Amino acid sequence: MDKEKYKVRAQSDHLTFEFLSEGPKGSIPKIVVYQHMYENFYNLAFGDRNSSGEILDDLITTNNGDTDLVLLTVASTLFDFFEHYEGTIVFAQGSTHSRNRLYRRYLTIFLDIIQQNFILFGELEGEIERFKVGKDYSSFYIQKKY
After folding, report:
1. How many folded domains does the chain comprise?
2. How far is the C-alpha of 3 from the C-alpha of 100, rounded, in Å?
3. Which residues contact 62 (CB under 8 A, 6 or more apart)?
């Protein structure tokens, strides 16, 4: 992915990534975490690092004017993750319906780029299918193309 994004620092396990959102509200620490769910499934969680610096807050709305850069940066961590965790599937879901709608919009915008490297699925009413533009998916599944 050669789009502009923030510089990311990966922890040695390649399950946690950190970067700074830069905007009118200053430098805001962001964190991306891949959490093992079961078998070869991992949950992608991201948000602001909380004030204690230990966990992420995925409900806060920062409004730092850099949504494009933040989401592209989060997406860029998939490359590193899949390089170290081959054969896995990443589950992603917005913490609210409006966030899920935002993620779906960005997945639609960048679908051509995504499909060059990944297979994208959407979940709708308990059924999982290849991602199709215009559907109101409740969650998403991402798998690396090999």
Report:
1. 1
2. 22
3. 21, 23, 25, 28, 48
Is 138 within a domain? yes
Instruction: Confirm whether 77 is domain-assigned.
Output: yes
Burial class (CB in 10 A: 0-12, 13-18, 19+), 131: buried
Pairing of the two strands 41-49 and 26-38: antiparallel
Q: Could you read off the pLDDT tens digit of each residue along the chain, which spans 146 residues?
A: 567 899 999 999 999 999 999 999 889 899 999 999 999 999 999 988 766 655 665 656 767 888 889 989 999 999 999 999 999 999 999 888 888 998 999 899 889 889 999 999 999 999 999 999 999 999 999 999 98
Query: pTM (2 decimals)?
Result: 0.89
Residue 53 lies in a domain: yes
Inside any domain, residue 1: no
